Protein backbone atom coordinates (compact mmCIF):
# COMPACT_ATOMS: atom_id res chain seq x y z
CA UNK A 1 0.00 0.00 0.00
CA UNK A 2 1.08 3.55 -0.67
CA UNK A 3 1.05 4.48 3.00
CA UNK A 4 1.17 8.18 3.88
CA UNK A 5 0.37 10.18 6.99
CA UNK A 6 -3.06 11.13 5.68
CA UNK A 7 -4.63 7.98 4.25
CA UNK A 8 -4.29 4.21 4.02
CA UNK A 9 -5.40 3.56 0.45
CA UNK A 10 -5.39 5.65 -2.70
CA UNK A 11 -7.91 4.36 -5.23
CA UNK A 12 -7.72 5.38 -8.89
CA UNK A 13 -10.99 5.73 -10.79
CA UNK A 14 -10.67 5.68 -14.54
CA UNK A 15 -12.60 4.99 -17.71
CA UNK A 16 -13.15 6.34 -21.17
CA UNK A 17 -15.13 9.44 -22.08
CA UNK A 18 -18.68 9.69 -20.59
CA UNK A 19 -18.76 6.16 -19.17
CA UNK A 20 -20.20 7.12 -15.77
CA UNK A 21 -17.17 8.00 -13.65
CA UNK A 22 -18.80 11.07 -12.13
CA UNK A 23 -21.91 9.10 -11.13
CA UNK A 24 -19.70 6.51 -9.41
CA UNK A 25 -17.73 9.22 -7.61
CA UNK A 26 -20.92 10.96 -6.46
CA UNK A 27 -22.11 7.72 -4.87
CA UNK A 28 -18.77 7.18 -3.11
CA UNK A 29 -18.94 10.77 -1.88
CA UNK A 30 -22.44 10.15 -0.49
CA UNK A 31 -21.06 7.12 1.37
CA UNK A 32 -18.62 9.38 3.20
CA UNK A 33 -15.43 8.81 1.22
CA UNK A 34 -13.10 11.62 0.13
CA UNK A 35 -13.27 12.00 -3.65
CA UNK A 36 -11.24 14.17 -6.01
CA UNK A 37 -11.22 14.90 -9.74
CA UNK A 38 -7.71 15.19 -11.14
CA UNK A 39 -8.98 17.46 -13.93
CA UNK A 40 -10.36 20.03 -11.47
CA UNK A 41 -7.11 20.10 -9.52
CA UNK A 42 -5.24 20.56 -12.81
CA UNK A 43 -7.42 23.57 -13.64
CA UNK A 44 -6.36 25.22 -10.38
CA UNK A 45 -2.71 24.33 -11.00
CA UNK A 46 -2.87 26.00 -14.40
CA UNK A 47 -2.96 29.32 -12.51
CA UNK A 48 0.41 28.56 -10.88
CA UNK A 49 3.31 30.58 -12.35
CA UNK A 50 5.74 27.66 -12.22
CA UNK A 51 3.27 25.40 -14.03
CA UNK A 52 2.56 28.08 -16.64
CA UNK A 53 6.30 28.34 -17.31
CA UNK A 54 6.68 24.55 -17.66
CA UNK A 55 3.72 24.31 -20.05
CA UNK A 56 5.05 27.22 -22.11
CA UNK A 57 8.48 25.63 -22.48
CA UNK A 58 7.04 22.26 -23.46
CA UNK A 59 4.16 23.26 -25.74
CA UNK A 60 5.13 26.71 -27.01
CA UNK A 61 4.58 30.30 -25.94
CA UNK A 62 1.29 30.56 -27.88
CA UNK A 63 -0.27 28.29 -25.23
CA UNK A 64 0.69 30.70 -22.45
CA UNK A 65 0.09 34.11 -24.00
CA UNK A 66 -0.71 36.77 -21.42
CA UNK A 67 0.71 34.57 -18.64
CA UNK A 68 -2.35 32.33 -18.64
CA UNK A 69 -2.75 28.90 -20.17
CA UNK A 70 -5.02 28.71 -23.21
CA UNK A 71 -6.79 25.48 -22.23
CA UNK A 72 -8.67 25.15 -25.52
CA UNK A 73 -5.48 25.41 -27.57
CA UNK A 74 -3.61 23.06 -25.25
CA UNK A 75 -6.47 20.54 -25.53
CA UNK A 76 -6.30 20.65 -29.33
CA UNK A 77 -2.53 20.14 -29.27
CA UNK A 78 -2.52 17.12 -26.95
CA UNK A 79 -5.57 15.38 -28.41
CA UNK A 80 -3.88 15.41 -31.82
CA UNK A 81 -0.58 14.05 -30.55
CA UNK A 82 -0.47 11.13 -28.11
CA UNK A 83 3.17 11.81 -27.22
CA UNK A 84 2.34 15.36 -26.21
CA UNK A 85 -0.68 14.15 -24.24
CA UNK A 86 1.55 11.74 -22.35
CA UNK A 87 4.04 14.53 -21.72
CA UNK A 88 1.33 16.81 -20.32
CA UNK A 89 0.13 14.03 -18.03
CA UNK A 90 3.69 13.35 -16.86
CA UNK A 91 3.99 17.00 -15.84
CA UNK A 92 0.62 17.43 -14.16
CA UNK A 93 -0.41 14.15 -12.56
CA UNK A 94 2.50 13.74 -10.10
CA UNK A 95 1.78 17.27 -8.84
CA UNK A 96 -1.93 16.44 -8.53
CA UNK A 97 -1.14 13.40 -6.38
CA UNK A 98 1.18 15.41 -4.16
CA UNK A 99 -1.58 17.99 -3.62
CA UNK A 100 -4.00 15.25 -2.59
CA UNK A 101 -1.46 13.73 -0.20
CA UNK A 102 -1.06 17.10 1.53
CA UNK A 103 -4.76 17.17 2.48
CA UNK A 104 -5.92 15.89 5.88
CA UNK A 105 -8.56 13.30 4.96
CA UNK A 106 -11.53 12.32 7.10
CA UNK A 107 -11.75 8.87 5.54
CA UNK A 108 -8.60 6.80 5.12
CA UNK A 109 -9.70 5.50 1.72
CA UNK A 110 -9.35 8.22 -0.91
CA UNK A 111 -10.73 8.10 -4.46
CA UNK A 112 -9.16 10.05 -7.32
CA UNK A 113 -10.76 10.24 -10.77
CA UNK A 114 -8.09 10.18 -13.47
CA UNK A 115 -9.62 9.62 -16.94
CA UNK A 116 -6.24 8.89 -18.59
CA UNK A 117 -4.73 6.92 -15.71
CA UNK A 118 -3.47 4.02 -17.83
CA UNK A 119 -2.51 6.21 -20.78
CA UNK A 120 -0.35 8.27 -18.41
CA UNK A 121 1.31 5.16 -16.96
CA UNK A 122 0.08 5.94 -13.44
CA UNK A 123 -0.83 2.40 -12.35
CA UNK A 124 1.86 2.29 -9.66
CA UNK A 125 0.60 5.54 -8.11
CA UNK A 126 -2.51 3.80 -6.74
CA UNK A 127 -3.19 0.92 -4.38
CA UNK A 128 -6.25 -0.21 -6.33
CA UNK A 129 -7.79 0.79 -9.65
CA UNK A 130 -11.47 0.75 -10.62
CA UNK A 131 -12.44 0.91 -14.29
CA UNK A 132 -15.82 2.42 -15.16
CA UNK A 133 -17.06 1.39 -18.59
CA UNK A 134 -20.07 1.50 -20.89
CA UNK A 135 -20.78 0.47 -24.46
CA UNK A 136 -19.60 2.65 -27.34
CA UNK A 137 -23.19 3.53 -28.29
CA UNK A 138 -24.17 4.49 -24.75
CA UNK A 139 -21.10 6.70 -24.41
CA UNK A 140 -21.86 8.34 -27.75
CA UNK A 141 -25.46 9.09 -26.71
CA UNK A 142 -24.26 10.55 -23.42
CA UNK A 143 -21.74 12.76 -25.21
CA UNK A 144 -24.48 14.13 -27.48
CA UNK A 145 -26.60 14.99 -24.45
CA UNK A 146 -23.61 16.96 -23.13
CA UNK A 147 -23.37 18.93 -26.37
CA UNK A 148 -20.39 17.21 -28.00
CA UNK A 149 -20.35 16.61 -31.74
CA UNK A 150 -19.64 13.17 -33.23
CA UNK A 151 -16.24 14.44 -34.40
CA UNK A 152 -15.33 15.68 -30.90
CA UNK A 153 -16.48 12.39 -29.40
CA UNK A 154 -14.31 10.38 -31.80
CA UNK A 155 -11.26 12.60 -31.22
CA UNK A 156 -11.49 12.11 -27.47
CA UNK A 157 -12.06 8.35 -27.78
CA UNK A 158 -9.05 7.99 -30.07
CA UNK A 159 -6.81 9.48 -27.37
CA UNK A 160 -7.86 6.72 -24.96
CA UNK A 161 -7.01 3.03 -24.76
CA UNK A 162 -9.90 0.60 -25.47
CA UNK A 163 -11.76 -0.82 -22.47
CA UNK A 164 -10.67 -4.37 -23.32
CA UNK A 165 -7.04 -3.42 -22.73
CA UNK A 166 -7.79 -1.53 -19.51
CA UNK A 167 -9.90 -4.33 -18.01
CA UNK A 168 -6.83 -6.55 -17.77
CA UNK A 169 -5.07 -3.96 -15.60
CA UNK A 170 -7.95 -2.91 -13.31
CA UNK A 171 -8.78 -4.46 -9.93
CA UNK A 172 -12.51 -3.90 -10.42
CA UNK A 173 -14.60 -3.23 -13.52
CA UNK A 174 -18.03 -1.58 -13.30
CA UNK A 175 -20.35 -1.58 -16.30
CA UNK A 176 -22.74 1.39 -16.19
CA UNK A 177 -25.24 0.12 -18.77
CA UNK A 178 -27.85 -0.37 -16.03
CA UNK A 179 -29.80 2.27 -14.11
CA UNK A 180 -28.52 4.37 -11.21
CA UNK A 181 -29.85 1.94 -8.57
CA UNK A 182 -27.79 -0.86 -10.09
CA UNK A 183 -24.70 1.36 -10.12
CA UNK A 184 -25.33 2.30 -6.49
CA UNK A 185 -25.53 -1.38 -5.54
CA UNK A 186 -22.26 -2.22 -7.33
CA UNK A 187 -20.54 0.81 -5.80
CA UNK A 188 -21.60 -0.14 -2.27
CA UNK A 189 -20.29 -3.67 -2.80
CA UNK A 190 -16.87 -2.34 -3.78
CA UNK A 191 -16.89 0.08 -0.84
CA UNK A 192 -17.44 -2.87 1.53
CA UNK A 193 -14.61 -4.82 -0.06
CA UNK A 194 -12.25 -1.86 0.30
CA UNK A 195 -13.26 -1.28 3.92
CA UNK A 196 -12.40 -4.92 4.60
CA UNK A 197 -8.88 -4.35 3.26
CA UNK A 198 -8.06 -1.57 5.76
Report on this model:
The protein has 198 residues and is α/β, with parallel strands linked by helices. The protein has one domain (9-197): 3-Layer(aba) Sandwich (Rossmann fold). Helix content is 51%, strand content 13%. The chain contains 9 helices and 5 strands. It has helices at 21-30, 38-45, 49-59, 71-79, 82-102, 136-145, 150-158, 163-167, 180-197; strands spanning 9-14, 34-37, 109-113, 128-133, 172-175. It has a 5-stranded parallel sheet with strand order 2-3-1-4-5. α2 (38-45) packs across α5. The N and C termini lie close together (10 Å). 31% of the residues are buried. Mean pLDDT is 90; it is low at 1-5.
Short description:
Keywords: ATP-binding, Kinase, Nucleotide-binding, Transferase. One of its GO terms (molecular function) is dephospho-CoA kinase activity. With 198 residues, this protein is α/β, with parallel strands linked by helices.
Amino acid sequence: MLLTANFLMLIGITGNFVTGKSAFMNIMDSLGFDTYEADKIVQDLYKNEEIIEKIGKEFGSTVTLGEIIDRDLLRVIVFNDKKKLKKLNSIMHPIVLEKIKEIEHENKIVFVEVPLLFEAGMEKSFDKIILIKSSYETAKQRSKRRGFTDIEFEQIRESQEPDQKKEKKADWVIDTEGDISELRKKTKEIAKELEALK
